[in-house]
Write a structure and sequence with these properties.
The chain has 126 residues and is α+β, with helices and mostly antiparallel strands. It is 33% helix and 43% strand. The chain is globular and about 55 Å long.
Length: 126
């Protein structure tokens, strides 16, 4: 009986390797969840109503991990998706004449958006 229990017991080396695999998986998922939390907070900070000095309005909304923009100018309203650019803060609007760059940044603690050469200032959150 004692011999049989020794044979069925897992080897210590196997236990160690399983434990390190679990530690690796735990670290990886914890890191991934932190990145998703960071991305959630970043996208939430981009959402809101922005106004330019010329009177144009930009409304940025979020659906999942995608951003959508609604730009109202004196010529009308246009709704479009913001496609990701080079980094977390740069996006672009697809257009027939070429992609229009959109840059999110903070200035003096206020969120601002630069669309092509037009500067928008955040006036409210959604």
């Amino acid at each position: 009986m004692a011999l049989r229990s020794l044979q069925t017991r897992p080897q210590p080396r196997l236990l160690r390797s399983r434990f390190t695999r679990f530690q690796f998986f735990w670290k990886k998922t914890r890191k991934k969840s932190f990145l998703l939390f960071f991305l959630d907070e970043l996208l939430d900070s981009f959402c809101g109503v922005y106004e330019s000095f010329s009177g144009s309005t930009l409304v940025v909304r979020r659906s999942g991990y995608s951003l959508y923009a609604e730009i109202t100018t004196q010529f009308g309203t246009e709704r479009t998706a913001l496609l990701p650019g080079k980094d977390f803060y740069s996006y672009y609007i697809p257009s027939y004449s070429g992609n229009i760059p959109v840059e999110f940044f903070t200035e003096k603690g206020e969120m601002r958006v630069l669309v092509e050469r037009n500067l928008f200032k955040k006036i409210s959150n959604p």
